[in-house]
Amino acid sequence: MNRLEDxxxxxxxxxxxxxxxxxxxxxxxxxxxxxxxxxxxxWVLYASAMLAAFLNLALVYITYKNxxxxxxxxxxxxxxxxxxxxxxxxxxxxxxxxxxGQILTExxxxxxxxxxxxFGVTFSYTSLLVIAIDRxxxxxxxxxxxxxxxxxxxxVLSLIVSGLFSIYMxxxxxxxxxxxxxxxxxxxxxxxxIGYYYDYFLLRTYMDFTKNEEKYYTNTATQRFxxxxxxxxxxxxxSGSDLIILYFCSxxxxxxxxxxxxxxxxxxxxxxxxxxxxxxxxxxVNVYITKAG
Length: 293
What we know:
Blueprint: H1 2-27, H2 32-65, H3 72-99, E1 105-106, H4 107-113, H5 115-140, H6 142-147, H7 150-179, E2 184-185, H8 194-205, H9 211-217, H10 221-239, H11 242-249, H12 251-292
Antiparallel strand pairs: 1-2
Helix pairs in contact: 2-3, 2-10, 3-5, 5-7, 11-12
């Protein structure tokens, strides 16, 4: 049995090395317009990530500021938004490297650069399960839910479900990157998990590739990158959609958001009026001095 597992592991490594090496060779042979497309798509991803980060930051702000949004599920939504921001800020590293002209980065270096984003993305999405558990308890055991206590209950629930799973994924991503430090990838947090996805695919199919599957999974690096980035764009958009969905589906959030928007409009109006008065005063003084002369 151990020999069979060793053979399987060896085959996984060979297949994975073949895919990675193919990507490295191909990506140096693609046309200049493909590089331009890669840069353009990366900037689109960056813009969507920054928009999502802004929306998540706004959700955290209104939750912190308004006591009416201090229930357990409100705090859990805000916690998910905080870790979502960490995930979205990971695209800063990608854009920085691409701006330097560095298309490929060693996997271990990429892991270190994207470590906070790796933890953030796993915590953010597993926290959705925490929110679902919280809502289930509040419906099935409402009295017990009220007696649990706010922040202690939230901390324990988040730590057990999201925290431990995020640490688990973070540790194994590090182990894989350490074992394959020289693999060359476009440095996004998703690249850190590439080995797990590929190994899982091999495990489920028992390495029984058809010719069509072989051709598909060893296609050009450019095509693979573009297809997966479309998926990343959808992830970014959904990551920042909580505030918009809550605005249209929750009366509490809608009231608070409208109040904050009105307050921001008031502040902007005061600033604009202040500048206008300053300009008018300056003009009046200048005219007066001219007449006096």
